[in-house]
Amino acid sequence: MLKWINGLFQFKWLDKLVEKLVENVFGISMTTRLGSSIHFFIYDTIKIIILLGIMIFTISYIRSYFPPERTKKILSKFSGITGNIMASLLGIVTPFCSCSSVPIFIGFVEAGVPLGLTFSFLITSPIVNEAAFAILLASFGWKIAVVYVITGVVVGVVGGLIIGSLNLEKEVEEYVYQIQMGEVAIDELSSRDRVRFAIDNVKDIVKRIWLFLAIGIGIGAVIHGWAPAPILAKYAGPNNPFAVLVGVLVGIPLYSNALGTIPIAEALINKGVGIGTALSFMMATTALSLPEMILLRKVIKPKLITAFVIITGIGIIVVGYLFNGIAHLLV
């Protein structure tokens, strides 16, 4: 039974099925660039949707126990490295996007959550989430997916610890400390309510990310079929010492999310780009995106934003080189 389940989620059956579809139904040889690209697009789309549905449902069910109000209460009870670890772990199962950064930040500050813990949450939450984990699992396998989650949490913990040690509370806009949001009642859900919440969350997330996903898979398909592997391997391969640094610097000003960039990263890695280079680019676009920085400027001053970008950016670069260094153990 275990062997059957393992084979099912390795998706070899889907690979063969799509291959037959491309060759027998579309009449396009798999040895051509067009056939290879079409196979990549259809295969990755179906594979990702299957795992996306499973992971979002599972994590959403767990998430139903941790609404923002409860998360805020939990974090207000911790301090020190234990608090940073807890903040990063809660960031994994708590919904987060750039548009929610300001109210979450205000809510944490108002609840008395230390600044370092708040930033551990803000760093980890966009990098590590159930949707990103599902696509990583589908694209790269469980080893890379698990190590990605672990390193994302470590970046959040270390980044929060450093920011907390810099005593930058005065770099938060004064009005934030004056806001009194008050207590919000936490509804207790039944098992049926939690299942309904998880199903609704699957529908909501898929509806919000399908365009990013389709564009990402489409770009990945083009790269898979037409990008010159020797050139990519030469300039963005794991042996280029500057590739990770460039990947992070290029990723920061872009507006995207992990879901749209993972299929692109998969195609690049298949063409010889270093695993760490591709994943650090992906982390930079999610944790340090320009839209999020613009929104955070409403509640924190430039000095704290600069510290946040530098500390998180260095952490992501270190993770990139780490992935490139241990890539042979993960594939």
From TrEMBL:
Q: Which GO terms describe its cellular component?
A: plasma membrane
Topology relative to the lipid bilayer, per the entry, is:
Multi-pass membrane protein
UniProt keyword annotation of Cell membrane present: yes
Span of the secretion signal? Answer: none
Report the subcellular localization.
Cell membrane
- Cross-referenced InterPro entries, in alphabetical order? DUF318 (IPR005524), UPF0718_permease (IPR053166)
Q: What is its main location?
A: membrane
Any coiled-coil regions, as ranges: none
Q: Which UniProt keywords apply?
A: Cell membrane, Membrane, Transmembrane, Transmembrane helix
List residues traversing the bilayer. Answer: 48-66, 87-109, 115-138, 145-166, 209-227, 239-256, 268-290, 302-323
The text of the family note is: Belongs to the UPF0718 family.
PANTHER family in the cross-refs: PERMEASE RV2963-RELATED
> What protein name applies here?
Permease
Species of the source: Paramaledivibacter caminithermalis (strain DSM 15212 / CIP 107654 / DViRD3) (Clostridium caminithermale)
Classification of source organism: Bacteria, Bacillati, Bacillota, Clostridia, Peptostreptococcales
